[in-house]
Amino acid sequence: MTNAAVVQISHLHFGPAKKPILDGINLELEAGHFLGIVGPNGAGKSTLLNILAGLTQPSSGHIDLFGQCLNRFNRHRLLKDIGFLHQLHDHQPRLPMYVRDVVAMGLADYAMPWKRADHREAIMQALALLDMQDLADADFRLLSGGQRQRARLARALVRQPRLLLLDEPSAALDSVRQEKLFQLLRKLCDETGMSVIMVEHDIAAISSHVDSVACLNRKIHHHAMKGEGIPEEIWSAMYGEHIHIMAHDAACIGCGPADQKPVQHHRSGHQHD
Q: Which of 7, 14, 112, 127 has the smallest number of CB atoms closer than 10 Å to its CB?
């Protein structure tokens, strides 16, 4: 086992120089680390995940994946170890497709259908993680919104990635399914060494599961580890002055003031238009 970080981002920029979408991002992630990213709409959260997934080219900066500099020569090979769930878009699929075939789309060799039979066990295991194995032969078009999202999550997990990128994975899931998902991700990090970068809006929902929370709005304003608080000026810098603080009972990362232990006062920020 190498001690190299799973992800190392240095001085990453994206967008026009005068008004960048991402401005000087520096981030390092070790194996088994569960990172939550929070921030307002338009903060660059999805853009950052798209860059790491190889879908968007940064304007400048350096990215190491699994201890190797990401470049055009090794890009295809390195990205095979990444699972990606992009942000849910509300559209109705038109073509009939079995749920198991949707999950199979996450396989690195999906373009070689003659190999798909070799991966049936992996497909069923991924579906079982999301309690979807009984729907493997169902028509994806006929699923509920929450079931479709769980099938998409299974697609991101089927290749057993070393790094999992999730853009609002709890969208369309009820509170019980959300909690089960976060517990599953925590278990996978602890038991398999998989690293997770997850974009979510509600810090209170994820804070008891993640190892750290990064506050992103164009740049990373604060990166709070477990047991740390996030100063109120950070929330103001991300969301503006009109921010509502809500109290909670359970412990979390970053929900309390920086000079208090979050186990005593649990708070999360919510932006109001």
A: 112
Clarify whether residues 72 and 171 are in a common domain.
yes
Please check whether residues 184 and 250 belong to one and the same domain: yes
Helices 175-192 and 145-157: angle between axes, nearest 10 degrees: 10
Question: Parallel, antiparallel, or unpaired: how do β-strands 163-167 and 195-199 relate?
Answer: parallel
Decide if 86 is inside a domain: no
Q: What is the CATH number of the domain that holds 48?
A: 3.40.50.300
Task: Name the residue range of residue 130's domain.
Answer: 92-160
Residues 196 and 77 in one domain: yes
pLDDT digits (tens, 9 = 90+) for 186-200: 999 999 999 999 999
Using the predicted structure, report yes or no on whether residue 261 has a pLDDT greater than 70: no
The radius of gyration of the chain from alpha carbons, rounded to an integer in Å, stands at: 19
Nearest Cα residue to 61 out of 47, 51, 72 = 51
Q: Which tens digit of pLDDT belongs to each residue from 25-72?
A: 999 999 999 999 999 999 999 999 999 999 999 999 999 999 999 988
Give dist(CA 246, CA 204) in Å, integer: 10
**Residues facing 137 on adjacent strands:** none
| Count: domains in the chain | 2
Cα(172)–Cα(18) distance, integer angstroms:
36
